[in-house]
Write a structure and sequence with these properties.
This protein has 609 residues and is α+β, with helices and mostly antiparallel strands. The chain is built from 9 helices and 22 strands.
């Protein structure tokens, strides 16, 4: 099985697991890992980062479809409505699936040669890719740190990479056809399904023979159905179909898993030519996935093949399989890494800027002599990191006097900002408890009231964020809710994955009340980068927000707000300047604390780089 969930004993949670990308980042440079995973610095979001996802999305949507069910010009949305359960997973209940509503095409309309299959697949990709690229363009446009220009995206080059992925899959199809479907042909024809079948628009229990099963000789359409690799259903929620280590400290998500012939082949799709240092990360990632498969199959089943498909170079790169001894050592080393990085939170001093040497790869991920350049030369954080031109001499808490002013502010360290609290309260009103996905709840403490804003329906424990059947008069415990104030000055209690509403125990009393909330803070920090977002509101009016990431000696945070509230100095600030931002509200998402300026806030540069 390619999907393995955490057990009920999971005390780590999805936000504290290790992943291959984190392990690679830490091995390349521990300071880079610290900046991006602990301080949450976000690199510039250039279009190429989104293009790869669009290519993979189009390829998976094409693979999900069947030349035995739809003509090559069929609508792109025929299989789009994957039924999902409350966890965002393909629904195992007896529900309608889109493919079950389609009749098989007449045999004369089905591809019967590899060339006909290639033509069908390419025409499906012609339909899917522009839509996938547009979805990614919209996502890129919404990024605070978007960089570059989307007009540089070469649609024809992206389409060529999709065609290459199809050609590579057709090699598997040919093998399957020549093998007469392999060992699972009879079972497949009878309608038997893997526990996690390759997504094909059908449910988990066919209840009868497969609708595309031939009663005569083996067909190419049957080969297409049988050799289809497993991949994450494009209709499932993001990150819902991970494989998780039995001890919960590591997780990953495979691109493609071929298994039609009884052998396990994991494929990593790369919409690139495979040049440069990053290709070394891809090799390490696949070897970690081999370890993950091994441990999630009771250490009894090993992967038989690992491949990287470099779609930009039209190269299939085979990765040497790790031995059992190597898998054991890898698991041990990664667990030790998790203990250092995630079981406890390391300090910045424990993550020095000592990057690993660069590695050399030419097109197709072929190893060549390593370049002499330092990894720091191409790092996004070289201007603020001691490994580049920066330093760790950062602002800290204390009284700060603003230049040219008699004003002074008592600065709070970023690490000391905590917008969360736990209180006991009475449910004053509930609207939509049974009619809406998310109820509107107001709570009261004596004569004081607050509105609940539920932005995550599921707590990090996997449980519902609020009690089913919650009603007026219930006494509830609001655990870890984020205190904020809306533009009207009303207290809002936000429910994110780290917060939940649960029934209070009899006699349980609150240690915090609504009026003890501190609304405003003063912070100081070094400017790491600025960000900017614009859009059109529901009322048709344009909105504009901007902000910055700042770092002090204790941590880092984003501070954002409406463009007009920043004042004139914002446009003159440079990366590395030290600033004071006074009278800000604070907010949070998961473990990330954020600041919010208002028209009453003060922004001042106190030291220029």
């Amino acid at each position: 099985m390619p999907v393995h969930f955490a057990s009920e004993e999971d005390s780590i949670g999805p936000y504290n697991r290790l992943s291959a990308s984190q392990a690679n980042a830490y091995n390349n440079c521990s300071r880079l890992w610290y900046y991006e995973k602990i301080l949450r610095f976000k690199m510039p979001q250039i279009p190429v980062l989104f293009v790869g996802r669009a290519v993979e999305d189009a390829v998976c949507k094409m693979l999900r479809e069947s030349p035995g069910l739809m003509v090559s010009s069929a609508d792109s949305k025929l299989l789009e409505s994957t039924p999902l359960d409350e966890n965002g997973l393909p629904n195992r209940a007896d529900v309608d699936w889109p493919a079950s509503k389609l009749l098989a095409l007449p045999e004369k309309m089905q591809p019967s040669t590899i060339d006909e299959m290639k033509k069908w697949g390419r025409e499906r990709l012609d339909i899917h890719l522009p839509l996938s690229l547009e979805e990614m363009r919209i996502e890129w446009e919404s990024e605070e740190r978007k960089s570059g220009n989307w007009s540089t995206v070469n649609t024809q080059y992206c389409l060529k990479m999709c065609y290459t992925a199809l050609d590579m899959h057709l090699v598997e199809l040919q093998r399957c056809f020549e093998a007469n479907g392999g060992p699972s042909l009879v079972s497949w024809r009878e309608g038997n399904r893997d526990f996690w079948p390759a997504p094909d628009g059908r449910g988990f229990d066919l209840k009868s023979s497969h609708p595309l099963a031939s009663k005569d000789s083996f067909t190419l359409v049957e080969a297409w159905e049988i050799c289809r690799p497993w991949f994450v259903d494009p209709g499932a929620q993001k990150f819902s179909m991970n494989a998780i280590h039995p001890e919960h400290w590591f997780q990953g998500e495979y691109d493609l898993v071929y298994r039609w012939d009884g052998q396990i082949k994991i494929v990593d799709l790369k919409a690139s030519v495979g040049k440069g240092d990053r290709s070394g990360n891809y090799v390490d990632q696949l070897r970690m996935y081999a370890m993950l498969w091994w441990v999630t199959h009771d250490k009894k089943e090993m992967v038989n093949s690992l491949e990287i498909w470099y779609l930009g170079a039209n190269v299939v790169k085979e990765i040497e399989l790790p031995s059992v001894t190597e898998l054991q050592q890898m698991e041990s080393d990664l667990k030790d890494m998790w203990k250092v990085l995630r079981e406890t939170k390391p300090d910045i001093e424990q993550c020095p800027p000592n990057p690993a040497p660069m590695r050399g790869f030419s097109a197709g991920g072929k190893a060549i002599d390593a370049p002499k350049d330092s990894r720091c030369m191409s790092c996004d954080w070289q201007n603020i990191c001691p490994g580049g031109s920066g330093n760790d001499d950062l602002p800290s808490a204390g009284i700060v006097n603003l230049p040219g002013s008699t004003s002074s502010f008592d600065i709070t360290e970023i690490a000391q900002l905590d917008p969360r609290a736990t209180i006991i309260a009475e449910v004053f009103s509930v609207v939509g408890a049974n009619t809406k996905p998310v109820p509107q709840i107001t709570i009261s403490q004596g004569s004081n009231f607050a509105k609940i804003q539920i932005i995550s329906e599921t707590h990090e424990s996997g449980q519902k964020s609020w009690p089913i059947g919650i009603k007026k008069g219930d006494i509830v415990k609001l655990e870890g809710l984020v205190f904020t104030v809306n533009w009207k000055g009303e207290i809002m209690l936000k429910v994110d994955p780290h917060a939940r509403i649960i029934p209070a125990l009899p006699g349980e009393e609150s240690t915090t009340d609504l009026l003890s909330y501190r609304a405003k803070y003063h912070v100081a920090g070094r400017v790491i980068y600025r960000f900017d977002k614009r859009g059109i509101g529901r009322n048709g009016k344009e909105w504009h927000r901007k902000g910055m990431m700042i770092q002090d000696s204790s941590g880092a945070m984003k501070v954002g707000g409406w463009a007009n509230d920043w004042g004139p100095q914002y446009s003159t600030v440079n990366i590395g300047d030290t600033v004071v931002i006074a009278n800000i509200g604070i907010d949070a998402w998961a473990t990330e604390v954020r600041g919010e300026i208002s028209r009453n806030s003060t922004f001042q540069i106190i030291d220029r780089i």
